[in-house]
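Work package 3, deliverable 3.1, input record:
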Amino acid sequence: EPEVTQTPSHQVTQMGQEVILRCVPISNHLYFYWYRQILGQKVEFLVSFYNNEISEKSEIFDDQFSVERPDGSNFTLKIRSTKLEDSAMYFCASTGTGINYEQYFGPGTRLTVT
Amino acid sequence: AQSVTQPDIHITVSEGASLELRCNYSYGATPYLFWYVQSPGQGLQLLLKYFSGDTLVQGIKGFEAEFKRSQSSFNLRKPSVHWSDAAEYFCAGGTDSWGKLQFGAGTQVVVTP
């Protein structure tokens, strides 16, 4: 069964550093998403991406965040200057088109900012 | 505002007993509703989904959920819980199948022998 993959599984970085989280969505999917889950809290939507542009973003997704689909398979989330409060599990998801598709989630990247 | 609420933060259930997890939603129109399960250190696995039609939805691992418009609820049930069902369960809703999902706070399920 096709699945969403994410790398790395765990990233440790120092405050102020840039990080890039990588995702490979399911190959025939066209909508891509990033969510995050701070430890002990609910999963929160960050951004959705379709047709090479952001279709929706949350208040969390400020100028420090960016997304990119650099090639036909990868979907990346970049945090330019990490803060302690960016420490969270980041989930990538993708879905196909049509009316009855669900979002498939990757295993997540645990980001720890020290 | 659109939201999904899971009233129970933590539920303890004996192995073999039945389980019901509550989920309430607040949307202007009938939302797309989902239940996901997250085992420790793992990602989110879809258990079942409701888009329209039959209000009783069957999912994987023996789970089912019932959509009740009158109660704005989408509760998850399992007749007989197994130790492997210990996990965190998230209810999520959206206004279409490609838009953002809004998650409830999650319910941690502990299964005792």
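DSSP finds no helices and twelve strands in chain B.
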